[in-house]
Amino acid sequence: MLKNVKRLGLVIGILVTLVLAACGGSGSDSKDEENTSGDPQYGKEINYTITGIEPGAGVFKASEAAVEEYGLEGWEVQASSSGAMATALGEAYDKEEPIIVTGWSPHWKFAKYDLKYLDDPKGVFGEEETIHTMVRKGLEDDMPEAYQVLDNFSWEAEDLEAVMLEVSSGTDPKEAAENWIKENEDKVAEWVDGVDEVDGDQIKLVYVEWDTEIGSTNVVATVLEDLGYDVTITPLDNAVMWQAVATGEADGMVAAWLPGTHGDLYEQYKDDLVDLGGNLVGAKIGLVVPAYMDIDSIEDLDTK
């Protein structure tokens, strides 16, 4: 009888062990130990792809540098455009799917979506940036009124994001600029304080076709038009934009991100143009993800 009891106990013990093993065990031997951080790493889900913008942009180059610096084997920064990036972000966000994009602020996406930058402990993306106004040499003598407005131009990230958000909702950039000016007459008054009106003088502004620069350039152009200028604004690639101001083919731009994004172009052309200083402080670039993604640092990305 005692032998039968012992034999039954042994059988029960074996069955319990098998059940626990099939269920993933108990205590510290849990399924969570397969990923010691407990956080999803997302690489496989998004095919190890970072959705980028134009390959000539500083944030795109910095993202490629981050892939190398953090040893993200198998990852690729996919070239696109700022518009295509925003579309991909919106589609993923609506479905609560994972996505990593090259990001910068100010940008309307931060007003529309709940997003966050991934921590960059190695400092690949640098510190906060300032957007500068650059003009051609001789502009102060040729167009002192326009020079003064461009020199005075300064606003906050919230101002620019308000214009960008309206444009992203379908409003024509010119109309969005006019709406912002009507609602912020006190700020605009500081830019034009003491500036005389002109009679149809022509001025050419250039910009890179990012949402930020579409917004800022249209606002400045509209203010100059209200003073009597005949303003032409032309979108160009990054390098061509800098070259146009440096060679005098264009009169100015309000789209120079420093010290990181356009740092190499500034070094190339700084002796051939005039830097009027920052028109917006606290700009930033980096890798951006929706807040619902359970990851906080570039270091946490997995590799193939």
Quick recap:
The chain is α/β, with parallel strands linked by helices and 304 residues long.
Low-pLDDT parts are: 1-6, 10-38
Mean pLDDT: 88
State the secondary-structure class.
alpha/beta
The number of distinct helices, counting runs of at least 4 residues, comes to 12
CATH topology of the largest domain: Dipeptide-binding Protein, domain 3
Which architecture of the largest domain would the CATH scheme give at its second level?
Answer: Roll
Rounded to an integer in angstroms, the radius of gyration calculated over CA atoms is 27 Å
- Largest sheet, described in full? 5 strands, antiparallel
CATH superfamily of the largest domain: Dipeptide-binding Protein, Domain 3
Per the principal axes of the C-alpha atoms, what is the gross shape?
globular
**In what range is the share of β-strand residues?**
15-25%
Helical proportion?
Answer: 40-55%
Helix and strand pattern = HEHEHEHEEHHHHHEHEHEHE
Q: What CATH first level of the largest domain would be assigned?
A: Alpha Beta
